[in-house]
Amino acid sequence: MNFLLTLVLILLPIAFLLVNRKRSSKRLPPGSLGMPLVGQSLSLLWAMRANTAEKWLEERMKKYGPISKLRLFGKPTVFIYGQAANKLVFASDDSIVVNQQAVSMRMILGDRNLLELSGEDHKRVRRAVLSFLKPESLKMYISKMEKEVLRHLKMHWEGKQQILPLMKTLTFNIICSLIFGIEPGAERDQYVQNFQKMIEGMWSVPINIPFTRFNQGLKGSAMVQKLMKELLKEKRLEQKEGAQSQKDLISFLLSIRGEGNGELKSEDEIIHNAMLVMVAGYDTGSVLITFIIRILANNRTVYGAVLNEQDEIAKSKSNGEFLTWEDLSKMNYTWKVALETLRLYPPIFGAFRKAIKDIEYGGYIIPKGWQILWVTAMTHMDNSIFQEPANFDPARFEKQASIPPYCFIPFGGGAHMCPGYDFAKIEILITIHHLVTRFKWKLCGTDNHFIRDPMPVPTEGLPIQISPKELL
């Protein structure tokens, strides 16, 4: 009898666990995790490079519905989309969802950047980075950014050119100047190829064997971190000799290290977050400007309205006078064009979060520890949110309050809103101002195709014929 009672007491909990496990597995979202490690990673990456990623996801939604499971970049993942999904991602507190990117991105950018931190660490580091990137601080850098734009146009903008490589050169130089405080020359040149390797490796299967994108990304990251450690030493010496702490982001972060709630605790936090800002500004800014140039070439009505706005501002400036914050605030239509471009061609395809506990969502369980994938374009191209979403219409943003929350998300949302929003806005407006007031251009091809690698890349880098206005 005692033996039977003991056996029952042992078997009951096991049976309970098995039943609950079976119930729980039934409540997992539909779909397949695929092969270990790889899963659907290669299939998604191929679709991105063929410019069919949104179609790939739409077919998945038709098959499985608004929530499904898969495996991406080595981790079990749940794909969700829509306004409610975006709200879950951006508005949930850290007891539900936390920052965590794909393994490949985390290993390349480091684990102390804003995309990886949560809770008080995220608030502390975000506060520090925003102290430099907020409008009140950036106002003093407008002329410095404009000098980089003018120098770039003088050196490169003539004849037949590929726009995307040109814009990458421009945004790289702006970031080097304002974020790193590195003047033009050999020191800048050491960074650019390694940054490109990092970007190409961030969305890749994390298999570290020679010549894979992940392997090259890790090597690029190691070289950049080495260069940045040397740069930190130089900045410390400059500060000891009385250099201004506000002249660039790295100098600023060094100056506030260890001072209180807004400080950065370690050298790694400075380096990893400077790398994040660099990668974000280098690629997203160049992609956005490139697609704006393409739209202005294809849409004469939009081009005319942008030109009229910018000509009025140019006429109000004395010869050689730099743009001001007040001038930028008058570029309302130009910024609406930029926002509509971001809606149609968001540089960031999507990103990941991590479930910190089992989450009830859409009638299923998102298990604790799983990745959550959100994709930018899934609400941007939803015709229940944006009427005739395939049409280019800057008027959509005349009343941004009319756009439902968590539907237009090129810069994220909530506490995870991109801290570089104002930096990007200033960079775009200054660049477009000088392009349309100084040059005319026409596309050299009719192919509007682009791939994602992982950012959108127009065919052949968008070749155009450029002419200074005074020569036309």
TrEMBL record:
It comes from the Eukaryota. Its cofactor is heme. One of its GO terms (cellular component) is membrane. Belongs to the cytochrome P450 family. Heme binds at C418. Residues 1-21 form the signal peptide. This is Cytochrome P450. It is found in: Membrane. Gene3D superfamilies: Cytochrome P450. Keywords: Heme, Iron, Membrane, Metal-binding, Monooxygenase, Oxidoreductase, Signal, Transmembrane, Transmembrane helix. The keyword Secreted does not apply.
